[in-house]
Each structure stands twice: as C-alpha cells, then as structure tokens.
Structure of Dabb family protein:
Amino acid sequence: MIRHIVTWRLAAADAEQRAADAAGIKQRLEGLRGVVTAERIDVGVDLGETDGNWHVVLDSDFATTADLAAYQTHPAHLEAAAFIRSVVEARSCVDYRL
C-alpha cells in the first residue's frame, strides 16, 4: 500500500478567498472517489488557528505504485490539478510504503 500525502499553501491573502479556494480543492479531490484507482481519498482544510500552518492536505492510499501513477495521469485528476495549481502558492508531497 502506498500513502500519498500532499499539502498546499494557498496564494490568496484574503481569508474569504482562501476558504473558497480550499473548498474548491476539497470538492474536486473528493469528487475523484470512485473515479480513480485510489483506495482512499481524504481532504482536510486547516482550522486556521495556528499561524504558519499549511492550508489544505490530501491524505490518500493506493494499492500499488502503478495505481498511484495511473491516478496522477488520470484526466479527472489532471483537471483537478489544474484548478489547484491556479490557487496555490506552494506544494509539498510525500509518498511512502505502508
């Protein structure tokens, strides 16, 4: 099993816009459930109570590295990723074997 964790820092300085962008990311990524090869897709939005925290996290599992690769090139994921790139300032990612 491969765990794929991605965090994003959103670009918007305005709290309302940041909340809207975070909701857009969450909706798009959770919409991939049952569409892509993921065993699990969970998206969390930071509570906003600690300065310096990243804003959004994707925590997902894939049965194999091939499934993760298929997810990353799936047209529905690419569409979600295009929106995400348009609203983020920075991204970090870790993939590891469970």
